[in-house]
């Protein structure tokens, strides 16, 4: 396998440069990767998300912004069914994963949907880098070993491909069989991104991926997000308005469990339609 090629079976065409939306219109249905409709989520009796509808565009970066506790992580966790293991979490509404060329759709919330298979299509990266206490190589090979029947040589190539894609290869190629815990925080986060893309997802969810990183590592991860968007649909949760405006094509502003406004990032930051959005992006509350 050519390490520079994309090993995903249903690889998507690269986005055209400049494809970023410059208007405030909702993403066109044909280019939507996740469709969320009238979505509500609870923890026990507490309703964390109310009547939320949003189209997440394909091959673009969507930023979720909003003050602490407004439901950003809750929505990400429902998108790849991480809340399955939270005993009192439940949800109502529609959450549809639009498949690629095949046109097949997956009803994310349906009990008959296989959450493990779903997570192969939707990778997730968390705030705190969480490499397994294994070698660098084993971290990246972990998912593919569960899902693919690859030979040793194919696995080597896949590991190299993912580490190159995550812009980490040059820093680790001579220490692949050393512990991942010996890497710096920024390197560990790029390793987690390599681990997430090694299973061939179409969608990458990132929950504050840079909040534990120094400015240099943040900048590397941001460059990476910018590059990855050619092949992946990315959702990034961030508390940094600068980061949202640097890396995202579209921005969705959440407040108290509701989606207040979404649109092209430039519009949200320069001409928001809602006063609450303007107050938030201008730092009047947070
Ligand atoms: N496991 C849980 N059990 C009960 N309540 C929860 C749980 N997880 C989150 N919540 C509550 O749901 C609401 C939304 O939380 P969520 O983590 O989605 O917010 P967030 O927007 O990601 O915030 P932050 O920016 O601080 O990460 C909060 O009021 C939170 O306390
Ligand atoms: Mg959160």
Automatic annotation (TrEMBL):
Molecular functions (GO terms): ATP binding; ATP hydrolysis activity; phosphate transmembrane transporter activity
Record GO biological process: phosphate ion transmembrane transport
Keyword Nucleotide-binding recorded: yes
Gene3D superfamilies, A to Z: P-loop containing nucleotide triphosphate hydrolases
Positions in coiled-coil regions: none
Region (Disordered): 1-24
UniProt keywords, alphabetically: ATP-binding, Nucleotide-binding, Phosphate transport, Transport
Compositionally biased residues, Low complexity: 7-24
Name recorded for this polypeptide: Phosphate import ATP-binding protein PstB
Organism this protein belongs to: Roseimaritima ulvae
GO CC, alphabetical: membrane
ABC transporter domain: residues covered: 34-281
PANTHER family given in the database record: ABC TRANSPORTER I FAMILY MEMBER 17
